[in-house]
Amino acid sequence: MANIIEVADLSLPELDVFARLTEGQLKARQQGVFIAESPKVIERALDGGCRPISFLMERKHITGDAAELIERCGDIPVYTADAELLASLTGYRLHRGVLCAMHRPALPMVKQVCAGARRIAVLEGVSDTTNIGAIFRSAAALGIDAVLVTPTCCDPLNRRAVRVSMGTVFQVPWTQIGTQASDWPEAGLAQLNALGFKTAAMALRPDSLSIDDPRLAAEEKLAIVLGTEGDGLASATIAACDYTARIPMTHGVDSLNVAAAGAVAFWELRAR
């Protein structure tokens, strides 16, 4: 049975996870906590095996959009109030009126994530939460079997990244490749090669292949490597990859946002 708790005191320590802890503090709390936002995202997180801790939601959603989620999650606390009070707690209007604090799942090994995969995305130092979320959404939609993030990437379980991904971060297998910045690119790329992947660095170089080059499509296992916003991939990463690929562009445009570039690359290089 649902454990409904009307919020009258915003200083309740149980509400810290929703408003007063940084992403880093959430990650360190109780072996790791993250926040899922909106009923659809929470549903996908539950479907992906994530374990809920507590809800925070507008009162109307208890018998509305969140009713099935509450029933599914048993007797965990459901903290509730009207929209204005909750906004004064969190500092923003709740997206679709529902938040859920959840335990962070343990990250699998790279070998496990890549087992059976033919197309994977590798994100090097992508730091913007919106870009991370958008890349995961494109990866889910456009045939990417797994995503690997380097240690300098934004956390894919950041609240905003999760929301922008529409919960696809729980559908596409992913993990971190390496535990510290020095593990990438040399050790990471060697690991991918050992798993049978050829690597394609997305970079604007005079000698790069067009993304529709048949040699890329012909690879049985291909890792598409995307770089950070602004600077793109590090020179050492490009030099160590098997291919350098570019997206042909017109009207003098010389680059795309990393999330847009990822979507184009995923579609063109999908396994056939």
What is this structure's SSE topology?
Layout: E1 3-6, H1 16-19, H2 23-28, E2 33-37, H3 39-47, E3 52-58, H4 67-72, E4 77-81, H5 83-90, E5 98-103, H6 110-114, E6 119-123, H7 129-141, E7 146-149, H8 159-164, E8 174-176, H9 186-194, E9 198-202, E10 209-210, H10 214-217, E11 222-226, H11 235-240, E12 243-246, H12 258-268
Parallel strand pairs: 1-4, 3-4, 6-7, 6-11, 7-8, 9-11, 9-12, 10-12
Antiparallel strand pairs: 2-5, 3-5
- What best-fitting shape do the alpha-carbon axes yield? elongated
Main sheet: strand order: 8-7-6-11-9-12-10
Structural class comes to: alpha/beta
* SSE pattern: EHHEHEHEHEHEHEHEHEEHEHEH
Specify the biggest β-sheet.
Answer: 7 strands, parallel
Oligomeric state of the chains?
A: single chain
- N-C termini distance: 48 Å
Percent of residues in beta strands? 15-25%
Mean pLDDT: 92
pLDDT < 50 stretches = none
Note down, in words, how this protein is organized.
- The protein is of the alpha/beta class and 272 residues long.
- Helices cover 32% and strands 20% of the residues.
- It is built from 12 helices and 12 strands.
- Strands 8-7-6-11-9-12-10 form a 7-stranded parallel β-sheet, with helices on both faces.
- The longest helix has 13 residues, at 129-141.
Task: List the defining traits of the structure above.
272 residues, alpha/beta, 7-stranded parallel sheet, 5-stranded mixed sheet, 12 helices, 12 strands, 32% helix, elongated
